[in-house]
Each structure stands twice: as C-alpha cells, then as structure tokens.
UniProtKB/TrEMBL annotation, chains A, B, C, D:
Belongs to the histone deacetylase family. GO terms for biological process: epigenetic regulation of gene expression. GO terms for molecular function: histone deacetylase activity. This is Acetoin utilization deacetylase AcuC. One of its GO terms (cellular component) is cytoplasm. It comes from Paracoccus homiensis.
Length: 370, 370, 370, 370
C-alpha cells in the first residue's frame, strides 16, 4: 500500500491576516490574534507526521505544479478569477465572503489546487494507491463565481475535472466530512448524475443557507446530492451511524470510479468553530470505511484533500489517524487526548441524532446503480 | 446602579505554560502554543471594556489584598496549601490535575481569591451594588485538597466564607454557568443547607465523574445542590429554558442573602473546549435574570466571578454583555458576531434538551423556603 | 513630585500588520510575525508599571481627547491628513514610508497625539510636575506631508504648538534619545530659533538621509538644531558623555520654558533595530539630568513622550527606570538584565565615540542665551 | 557541486520556554514571550529555503542518527550527561547556565549533534562536497561539564571527534562567526595543535570571561586558538577585514583536512542580542572565502553547523546566502533588506575596528605549517 502525500511550506504563507475567529480585526475586534484559518493548524499536522516517523512511510510528492488557468476555468468563472488575480497582484483582499488573502495569495491558491491534481494524477496512474493532500488554502466552500468561507478555489472539483479530461473517469464521489456544509461541490454538480456529492455537517451552520436534507440534486442530478445535517454536539456515535447508514451505502450504490474526501477536522471535539465531538478514532474509522469502499469499487483510488480544522492542538492527531489508515499502518501513534475525549458525555449516538440521520438515509435509494 | 470591577495586570502573569489545549507540551504534543487557559482570553475582555468605554462607567477597585492564609484555610487543607506554596517558591508545577502554574503562581492565586473577597466586601458594605471580578486563575474546579482543571484556589467559597464571618451572612447561592461542572462548590457545600449550589454545564464533560442530576446534596444539605447537565450542542434556547425553569425558581425558593455567579464563557459558541452555543445575548439575559433575583431577595447583592472561557476572539463580547447588564446599561455595544451566531441551526430549545432540563426542574421543589 | 501618566488600551489596537522587522510580509518575507512596532513592546511597559506597583504612585490621566483637526493642521498639511483619513475609513494602508496602519488607525493616531497634549496641559497648569506619555503610534519621524518610520502624526510638535497657543510658551526644547534620527522636529523647526531640537541617534541609520552634525538649523534657526550621531555600538559611556557635553550644556544655554523628551528605548542593548548598548541605568540617568535641567530652567516642566523601542523583553525595564526618575522614586525596582548588560565589553566611552560627540559639542556655543 | 542539508522538524520541538530575551519569565519578567532561542528563527530559514526553491538544489539528508553515548562521551563528562539525561526524563530544567530545555530535550540535543556527524560522514565519504546543518539546539557554548548559552552538547567537537576516529582525519579547523565567543571549542582544544579554533565575536559579550585576544592556546596548542574580538557595531567592512587578514591567512598556514564553520547569524544587523551589522552579503562572502580555502586545502571538505541568530525576520536571508554559496549558486534570491541594511552608517571598516583586528592578525604567524 503506497500512500502519496503533498505538503509545501508555501501553503503556510497564505495570509488570512489578523482576525477574531473568522472576522477581520477592526472596530471592536481587537487585533493581535491569528485568523482561525491560519498556517499553524496545518503546519502542526505536517510536523507531527514528520516527528512521529509517519512521514517516512509516505510517498512524498514534492514536485507539484500550480493549476493552470485552463484547469481552473473549467470550474470557475473568468471574471472571478480575473478579480482575485488582480487583488493578489496588489495587496490582496477578500475573495468574496469571509475569504481574506494576501499579496501573492492567488498563486498559493493555484498551487493548492495543483497539489490536489498532481496527487490525483499519481493515483490515476497507479503510482500510488491513495493520497493525503495537506493543501492550503482549503476549497470546499468556493463557488464558481466567488470565494467563500476561507476558500478561494474549488480544489476538489478543479482536480476532478482535469482528471476526467486526462483519464476519462466517469463517476466520481465526493465525501465531505468537514463540519461545515460542502456547498461548493453541491452547487457545481447539482445537476450532474455522474458526480455524487455527500456532505456530513453541523446542521445549518455555514453557509447559513445551504446544506438541508431536501437539497438532493435537481434535473438529471436529482438524488445525487446527499446532505447529512448533524445536530450540533454530535459525537463519535453519530458520525459512525451516518457513515454506516448513509455514506457507505450511497457509495456502494453509486460505484464510483474515484472517491475524493474533503477532509476537515473541524468536526473534532476541541474545534473552536464546529460544535461536534469527533476525535481521532472517528476520523480513523471513517477513513477505514471509505478506503474499503474505494477498494470495492475503484481499485482503492482515493484522494483525501484537506479542508477545515482549527484546533492547532488537536488537528494533528486527527490528521495522523487519517494518514495512518490510508497507509494501512498497523502500528499507530498514540493520541494523548483520547482518554479525555472518548469519555465526554453523549459521545455515543443519541436518539435525536439517529432520527436526523435517518432522513438522509431514506434518500440513499434514489441513487441508481450504474 | 454602581457596579464594581476588579482586574489586575498580574492576573495575566499567571503561567500555565506551553500546551496543546489543556495538556502540557510533551511527547507528541508540539510545543509553541499557549495553554487554553492563557492570559489573552482575560486581557482581551479587559481591553474591550476599556476601548468601548464601558470601563468608564464602572467603579474600578484597584486596591485589593491577597487572601490571607486564614481566609484560604477556611476552605482548603493546610497540606495542600503548603504543597503549592512550596512549588510556587521554586519553579512552579502542577497543583493536582491539569493545573499548571509557574514560579510565584501561588501569590497570584491568592490575589485572585483576594480580588473576589475585596469586591464582595464592597458589595456587602453597600459601596457598590454588584461586581464583576475578572480574576485569574479561576477557581470553580479547585477542591479542598487539590487543584483541578486550571484552578488552584476555590475563589468563590474563600470569599463567601470570609464574608460570612465578617458580615454574618446566612444563605448564599452559587450559580455556575461555566460549561464545566462546578465541582468545587458542590463538594465544599454538599451537606450544607445554607448554601445553594447550582451548576449548569455540558453533561459529563469535566470533571468526568461529577455533575449528574442525582447529585442533589446529602444529609442536611439534601436538595441544596442542583446540577443541570446540558446536552452538548445546547444553545441560547436551552440556556434560557434552564434559567427560567430551574435557576430562577430555585433562587426564588431559596431567597439567598447573597448571590455569587461563577461565570465562565466556555459555554459560548466559539469556545474550543465547550461544545455549547451560548452567545453574548445568552449571557446578557442570564445576567439580567440573576440580577433581578438578587434585587428581589437580597437588595441586589450580586458578585460575579470569572471562571473559564477560551475563545480570545469571543469571550470579550460575552464579558462586555454581562458587565453592561450588571451596570444596567441602556446603550450597549454591538457584538459583531451576533449576526452569524444567532443564525446557527438548533440554537433554540430542542425537545431532547427540554427533557434533560426537566429532570433538574423536578428537584427545585426540594428547596425549602427559609 | 507628581508625575502624570497616559496609557490607553486602544493604543495597543493600532495595527502595523504582519511584518518581517520593518518590512511588510510579502514576497520572500514569510508571514506570521508581528511587525517590529507592535503593541507588545508598549503594553509590557504598562504591565510592568502596574505589576511592580510603580503605577500606584503615578497620576494616571485617563480622560484624554483626540487631537482636533485644528491642532493637527497646525503641523501637518491638509492634503496629507485627508489622505490618511480616507485610508483609515477603509482598510488602512501606508501613511508614506514604512508606516502601515489599519482601519480606524487615524483615530488612534489622533488620540496618541491628543494624549501628549492632554498631559502637556496638565504640566502647564501645574496639576502635575512632569509626565510620561506611553502613546502609540509614535511620532518623531512624521513629517508635515507624510508618515515615515512607523509614525503617522508628529505627536510632540502637535502638542507643543497647541500648548504655545494656549499657554503662550516661547522657547521649547526637544530632546530626542530614540536611536533613530528625530527628523520630524528637525524639519518642522529648522528655521525656528525658539525651538531647540536635539537628537542623539545612531549615525546615519534611519532616515538614511538626515541626522548629520552639520544639519544645524538654517536662517533664523541656525544653531538651534543639534544632531549627535553616535557610532553604532555606543554604550552607556557614550550616552552619558553626549548628555554631559552636548545635551545639558545646550539646554543650559537655551533656557527652555518647556522640555519635551522624545523617548525611544531602541538605543537599548537588546533592541532588534538599533545597534547601541544603553540599558536601564542609562535611561534613568538621562532622565535625572534632563529633569534637573527642567528644574533649573522651567519649574520642572518636562513632558516625556514615547517613541521607539522594539525589545518586548527589555523596553519595560527602560520605561520603568524613566518613570521612576520622573517621580523621584527612592526605592526602585531591580532590572534583572543589569548584571549581564552592564558587563558587555566597550560599554564605557571609547575614544572614537568621544571624537564624534565632540563635533556636536563644538556647536553648543552657537545657541544664544535668551 | 553537491551540498548536503540537514533539518528535522523535531529540532523545532526543543523547548526553551517562556522568556524575556535570554532570561526565564519569572519575577518582574512578564511571561508570554518566546525565549530568544526559539524554533521560529530556525524554522523560517528552512521555510525560505523551501519556498525560494533553493532546497530543490540541495541534497537533503533525511536519515540521521542521534549521537551515541560513546560519541558524546568523547567530548563530555559522564556526570554531566547523566545529569541532563535525568532532567530530560522528567520535566527538563537548565543544563547549566542559561540553557533551558524541556522533557525529552536530551534526545533532541543528541539528534542535533548526530545530524552534524551524519553530514560530516557524507562529506568525508565524498557523497557530498559540503553541508549546511540547520541543527538545533546549538552547540558552540557547551563545555565538557556543563551547558551554557542555550547549548547542551558541543555538536561540532562531538562530530569532529567521531570523524577523526572513523576517518583518521588529523588537522581540523573550526571557524566560529557567531557573534558570541566560541568558548566550547576553545576550551576543548586549547592544548591541541591539531585543531585550529578561530572565533570572531563581539568583544567581551558572552561568555563574559572568555574570548580575549591573548587566549591563544597553551602547551602544545599554543598559537592554535585565535580570538578576533570585534568592537560592538562592527559591520560588513570589519567582518571582511577580519576574514581577509586573520581567518583566511590562518587557514592557509594551518592547511586543515576539514573545516567546520560554527555559523551563527546573530552578528546580523537586526539581531536582538548581538550588536554587529553583518548582513546577508557578509555571510555570503565569508562562506565564499572559507569554501575557497577548503578547496585549496582539503578537497572542499566543509561542514557548516548552525549556531545562534535571533532575528526571525532576518536570519532566513542570511541562511539562504550561506547555503547558496555552498552550492555555488549562480542565480541567487534577492534579500529585500539589503537596500536598507547596506546603507547603515559605518558599515565599512572603521579605524578603531581595524586596530582591534590587527592584534589578532599579529598572531597568525604563530601557526606552523604542517
Ligand atoms: Zn469547515
Ligand atoms: Zn470551564
Ligand atoms: Zn527609533
Ligand atoms: Zn550567539
């Protein structure tokens, strides 16, 4: 089992500026703090992989190319790209909604998308079995015509559309376990039955206006967009139940030729933005199951792209767990937070959580086997 | 309406060291981050009070004395105090469980407790109507024989016991709205019918072994300890419901001569440790109600002591809301996070939350009117 | 002896952004570091004053007004002020050369200047004997038509010109011991024989094109601008020699009615920008001597305004020493760095340093006694 | 030309704790700041190498072994090693004088020394021509029986003694351009005529009691220890003059079989501890000259080990310049600080500096050609 891995130090140079959580420091928001989406939460994942020795078992892909204009324009509008390129060439700005970036930020974003594509090519060529791309900035909120929620470019769709052109892939499944709704892929593929988009997220959080169960795709794509809105406070039990009753059955019906996970760790129990209570075991187990689905349906072709996760203390252990599972590691590092986190009350599935998940499960049968 | 206020810069000098959330940086926990309980989360509350102009309307109590040995030993065991004094005189250490402190940390802790007592005296003497004490280190987890959960000394009980001796107060009510269980006051007053201890907290989080509904006091104190364990993910609605159906009715039965609020903001929607979704309006409204109860029962005598709250971005707005309500401010500052936070899904009372709260409400009638 | 003191938390909210020393983070300058001129270097001075107890002996002036347009336009060009006001109302920008500021930065700058003026008024009215204004942003590099070197407004001249109008002061002496050249006051008063401007600074550092010995004033002001360019590496001995052979003799000839010190601590031995080796004793002794001169000539009227100083570790001890001397404190706090700093080689006056200082001393006699 | 390079993320995990410059945060030294010798100053060098693309041209040595007990005990006393091992197994402590370290710090120190040795072996085997080891903690102040000045183990001597045993090297030259005195190698090799130890440093700074010109070796080693104490404030001119009149002539007489540079960047113009004014061009030029000497005498065998350097903003550009020269890069990155730094007054050689350097130059002839 060979797992590819992408990280570039320049991903840490993307500037989100001084912020109070996700708002810029101005007015009564005191300056002097990093924005929630800062470099540390990613750099420390990379550092743990190296210090723990996990990195030694990975196939590091060092040579990545930025996504080209053509690759980006397959997903985004030219006007939007021109706009953020122009800002990037000056002092940076906001790419749309809550998406600050600095001078040169466009180039980093294009490299972030390019890292996803490079890893995807290696998977498709069979050079590696699967990959973890620790890319930054993230991508799952970006829409064709604007940046949203810290995301400039739709990294996943940009990679997938290029891979489709290059390798003739048909059915692609996106599994988004970031705590926020995967609005980008939903919008891009809403009418497309060849792309299954599944998003597990905290009910009605961000974006505020998307992510409901009844957003199930439209036209030819009806049935191919699955939202699993989780009650805030959902823990390991709810995640497992959602995976077992919705995500995996949906994948098994859809039989994707490639699975792309949009992997945020902001569903973790110590995240400052999300309110859920996943912990490293949760992410480990979800990875195991989605990897197993990839093995059943598409020779293990699995691309995991980094999205949110704002606990610099805890995201590293979630990241390590996912990477270890991708590698099939048998001897795994110890997450020192587990003894406390696994004991939190209501970590297991609650009746009201099960009820909510059942509404999503009921839609799985609308997916047609190919 | 005169509201007292205590803050000393030295509270920010209490050292909790380098940490990953609440664990010390060692082993696989990378150094380079502040411990969750760091100075910034308090300093920024103070800074917002000053910059917004709120501070100008407060009665700042600058001259505070450290709690004396006698005052401290009324609550804590001598062996414990000797132990942490000795560590403090060297390089600091851990006061028990997850309670790091640095050289000189004991003196800061004694001043933190002393600040509470000084403010309490001013309230009892009628020099001020009520007070917010922005003390640090916090106190609500400290037990007679050990520090726990970032707390070295039981600030609230130390202040209350001294005030009882000095002013002959009888019935005192503690209302703890920190997201963690108020185990300290519960343990200290478990058999005492003259001290009503109420704690609203995330069900079964920290400490892991206390805070259940059926911990209702024992012996003479039976009925006088009320726990309101909230489902993780509880929002404004649950907090309001708990206040209206448990906290206020309990206070109205008990008719305290002094109310002490142990005010943590880690129930806030952006807290990295708690999983609840209170926001500034929640804390504002709880303050309004508890202040009203104080006016009904004890000439408004209300002492609010600072406990947890780990979002440096958001705790300031929660603190400002509480202080404004204590002051009876009619023109209040605008919390820039409200538009986003109040829109989070399931912010209102959920049926399963109401059910849990009802179990606590059922115990209110066990409190005897004096 | 009553010493006034000004500090407002909002001074710490002035945003200089992410920077590599004094350059903005862009290109190959990695983001993630505070700009050299950040809040910490000032806040920690204030914190030490409070924690050490020095603050208790000061007359804190809490109520300060921003400098008005009229007061500011007495020194600055209207076009420049309009320009930075406009930037401030948007996202901030750069006020000219190496002078970043954030949204609302103009208002903070006007308050910084206003703090100087408020303290100056209290000195002139005899309410206090002298004052330390811990203002931010600094002012000594600002020129009438542009911000330079982290300075937006010429705080000192703005205060002095208003005081002149309000109190009819004639001769004013500026003593600038910041490690950089006091180009602002030099330029503003270059032709004015009623304003003696003295600057001690590291030879030819910043601004690169001003500060030479032969810049001695012009026209009516000839002789009334004194530069003392110090060799990089100058220590306590050189500072003392410059004071004793240039600064004090010049003040004694000029007989000012008010002395304004532009007090930067970036001549300190641990400063990251300056290369000199002053330490707290140096600043203490200079304060003692300038205070003594003020007593001889102008009933002790002495206004000390904060300028540079970029060692968050060491500036606090320099600030405390200056404030203690202003107060005439007899029992002073211990600077823990002294044992190491006073032992640095070549801390005493070196022949080449004496030679350089002599060139400035030779110009003192050009000052006419009034 | 192949240049080896060593960096491990775990070097950034060495804990020097909370500090005010080089003193621990206690007493009146406010907590909340990183110690001067923190990870950032190294990590940002590595980051710039990667982001600029320089890293792509280096031979990264990823697989390094910690120095063994035997290798370490060839230089250090067993009692000292046992002492710091014991502290490391608990909570860390201070290795002697101003040398804090955390739990597990011994293991990191042994790896830091091991990285030097691994790179040295590759040089000796001809696998690479030369190497830059970005090791941490540093080593040049460590003495056989104690840690000093942030250094636990004498990385350079430990590597050299092992290389001598393994490869039979005779004459080794150490060139130490850190701004502090290279007391470790001086003490270890003071009587040894086969090891030439040269240190350029700020006169009489740290350690306070060593580094004078007349410390010229003793016994058989007389003449083989050269100190070049530089006036504080020495700039590019002084560094060049010292190199051309002392360092290079000494190397040319000694004809080493291996040259080890102890490369600190704290002689840089923005360093908070040193007072000198080297800049990237200075370090570039010194590297060029020492590399040329290595080519003349020992087939280019040159090992550059990282020592001090405390400007997180500027050390990266100094590091990049050294690495580029080692590689013989013809197209080098642009140091954005050069336009300002090269213009600082007295950057060129001053007469008093030349005079001081001449005293060291006079000793060169005592070195006997082999
Ligand atoms: Zn997210
Ligand atoms: Zn808490
Ligand atoms: Zn300056
Ligand atoms: Zn050094």
């Amino acid at each position: 089992m060979t797992t590819g891995y992408v990280w570039k130090d320049i991903f840490a140079w993307h500037q989100t500026g001084d912020g109070g959580a996700f708002l810029p420091a101005r007015g009564l928001i005191q300056p002097g703090q990093l924005h929630a989406e800062n470099a540390e939460t990613k750099r420390r994942i990379h550092n743990l992989l190296e210090v723990s020795g996990i990195l030694d078992g990975l196939h590091s892909i060092r040579d990545i190319a930025a996504a080209t204009d053509e690759e980006i324009l397959a997903v985004h509008d030219a006007a939007y790209i021109d706009h953020i390129k122009a800002l990037s060439a000056e002092n940076g700005g906001d790419a749309g909604e809550l998406t600050p970036f600095g001078p040169g930020g466009y180039e980093i974003a294009a490299l972030s998308a390019g890292g996803c594509l490079t890893a995807g090519r290696a998977v498709m060529r069979g050079e590696i079995d699967n990959a973890y791309v620790l890319n930054r900035p993230p991508g799952h909120h970006a829409e064709p015509d604007r940046g949203r929620g810290f995301c400039l470019l739709a990294n996943g769709p940009i990679a997938v559309e290029a891979l489709r052109r290059e390798f003739g892939i048909g059915r692609v499944a996106f599994v988004d376990w970031d705590v926020h709704h995967g609005n980008g892929a939903q919008r891009i593929y809403y009418n497309d039955p060849t792309t299954l988009t599944i998003s597990m997220h905290q009910h009605h959080y961000y974006p505020a206006d998307t992510g409901a169960v009844d957003e199930n795709g439209s036209g030819a794509g009806e049935g191919y967009n699955l939202n699993i809105p989780l009650h805030p406070g959902s823990g390991h039990g709810a995640y497992m139940h959602a995976f077992e009753t919705v995500v995996i059955p949906a994948l098994d019906r859809f039989r994707p030729e490639l699975i792309v996970v949009l992997s945020g760790f902001d569903g973790g129990a110590l995240d400052p933005l999300g309110r859920n209570m996943a912990y490293s075991t949760t992410f480990r187990e979800m990875t195991r199951q989605v990897k197993s689905a990839a093995e059943r349906h598409c020779q293990g072709r699995l691309l995991v792209l980094h999205e949110g996760g704002y606990s610099a203390a805890y995201a590293p252990f979630c990241g390590a767990a996912v990477v270890e599972e991708l590698m099939g590691a048998t001897d795994v590092i110890e997450d020192p937070f587990i003894p406390i986190l696994e004991g939190i009350g209501m970590m297991d599935l609650q009746p009201h959580q099960a009820e909510a998940i059942a509404r999503s499960a009921a839609l799985v049968s609308r997916i047609e086997a190919p």
